[in-house]
């Protein structure tokens, strides 16, 4: 009997070596803005690993903003610190592509062969293309919307059921709300951080950042002048104070701001932070030119960085899962971003019923036909260009420069930062 047990033990050892467990592929993933995305990333990665037990997701330290995120990736490119996968702001895909940092996803898409059936239409794929190259897959996409405190609107004599549809109406309402006193501000317009909200005004007027040849600035033309004049009027007539991004958010959720303009991606956090303090509503952002006006597409794309062939296959699985219908069904309710996957948007298995039951989320969804790419400046000075625009916007908000002076100075500085042919 003892000999028999020894034979069984030996056979078990032999089988262990003969049928090894499948090797685990570990992917290091980096993402920005943990305030928006930490819970979303945790949920998506957990579900992905349940369905793909041979792949393990670990997270690098997240970056506070898109700008910090791109600078981190540019520093780490080609080093052992570089993550296998990252999520990059849509307006910075051009910058990393010019350095040949991302993996071209075109061959993966060609091999896959059924992207449209998975909800990735041509229009959605184009959001993360640079000069025809598939640099990533759009993960979280947003547009700017209007948030408003219906209680303050009523007190100021407005009708919450019919929110302002033009900038003239917004500014007039903001002035009335400001006049209520008690530390209440009329408007919070999220101009800080990057050029996205300025783009909302500029594109909404039918304008563009650079001329078609990208050699000269175009944002200081008639459309840009109208855009920056609206910002100036918000300050002078609408009750827009000088606040940091964080202070503006805190003031709005505390019930001290009547109307706020920022990304739909902040909606879930805003709902949570407002709680029952006041009657929160959302609506479309006005367009200076309601016929030709467009809106910038904010958000980010999942980008593969690793050059290891085995990891690339695993990373492609993760990228498709994160940007696919399940990922979108987590991102939209968990943040407020609009769905970047058509299957997720239309299917009752994912988000179709969600929008019926959650009217605050509809403003961003209904604006999707107006969305165009968030402009990506050419060359290596993209971050400096953005900082230059923001610094000159701050001069208008602080009333230390006229709109004309700030716009002309921004144009001159940006033009000096553009690449020379």
UniProtKB/TrEMBL annotation:
Source species, domain of life: Bacteria
InterPro entries named among the record's database cross-references: Bact_solute-bd_prot1, SBP
A GO CC term attached to the entry: periplasmic space
Keywords, comma-separated and alphabetical: Periplasm, Plasmid
Coiled-coil zones: none
DNA repair keyword on record: no
Subcellular location: Periplasm
Family stated for the protein in its record: Belongs to the bacterial solute-binding protein 1 family.
Protein's name according to its UniProt entry: sn-glycerol-3-phosphate-binding periplasmic protein UgpB
Gene: ugpB
């Amino acid at each position: 009997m003892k000999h028999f047990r020894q034979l069984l033990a030996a056979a078990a050892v032999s089988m262990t070596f003969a049928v090894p467990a499948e090797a685990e592929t570990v992917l290091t993933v980096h993402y920005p803005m943990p305030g928006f995305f930490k819970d979303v990333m945790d949920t998506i990665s957990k579900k992905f690993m349940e369905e793909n037990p041979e792949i393990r997701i670990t997270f690098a330290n997240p970056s506070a903003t898109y700008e910090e995120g791109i600078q981190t990736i540019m520093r780490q490119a080609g080093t052992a610190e570089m993550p296998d996968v990252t999520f990059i702001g849509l307006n910075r895909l051009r910058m990393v592509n010019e350095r040949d940092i991302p993996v071209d996803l075109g061959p993966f898409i060609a091999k896959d062969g059924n992207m449209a059936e998975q909800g990735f239409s041509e229009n959605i794929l184009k959001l993360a293309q640079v000069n025809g190259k598939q640099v990533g897959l759009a993960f979280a996409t947003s547009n700017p919307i209007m948030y408003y405190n219906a209680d303050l609107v009523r007190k100021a004599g407005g009708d919450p059921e019919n929110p302002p549809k033009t900038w003239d109406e917004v500014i007039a309402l903001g002035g009335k709300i400001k006049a209520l006193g008690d530390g209440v501000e009329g408007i919070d317009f999220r101009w800080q951080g990057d050029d996205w909200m300025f783009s909302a005004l500029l594109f909404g007027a039918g304008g563009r950042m650079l001329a078609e040849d990208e050699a000269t600035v175009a944002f200081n033309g008639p459309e840009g002048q109208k855009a920056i004049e609206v910002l100036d009027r918000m300050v002078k007539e609408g009750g827009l104070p000088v606040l940091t991004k964080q202070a503006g958010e805190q003031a709005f959720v505390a019930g001290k701001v009547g109307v706020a303009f920022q990304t739909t991606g902040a909606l879930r956090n805003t709902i949570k932070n407002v709680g029952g303090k006041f009657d929160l509503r959302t609506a479309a952002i006005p367009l200076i030119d309601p016929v030709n006006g467009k809106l910038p597409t904010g958000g980010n794309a999942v980008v593969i960085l690793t050059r290891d062939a085995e990891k690339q296959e695993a990373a492609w699985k993760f990228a498709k899962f994160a940007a696919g219908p399940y990922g979108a069904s987590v991102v939209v309710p968990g943040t407020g971003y609009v769905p970047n996957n058509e299957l997720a948007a239309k299917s009752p298995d994912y988000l179709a019923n969600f929008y019926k039951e959650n009217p605050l989320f509809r403003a961003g969804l209904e604006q999707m036909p107006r969305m165009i790419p968030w402009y990506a400046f050419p060359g290596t000075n993209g971050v400096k260009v953005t900082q230059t625009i923001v610094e000159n916007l701050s001069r208008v908000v602080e009333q230390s420069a006229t709109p004309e002076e700030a716009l002309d100075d921004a144009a001159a500085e940006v033009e000096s930062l553009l690449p020379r042919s």
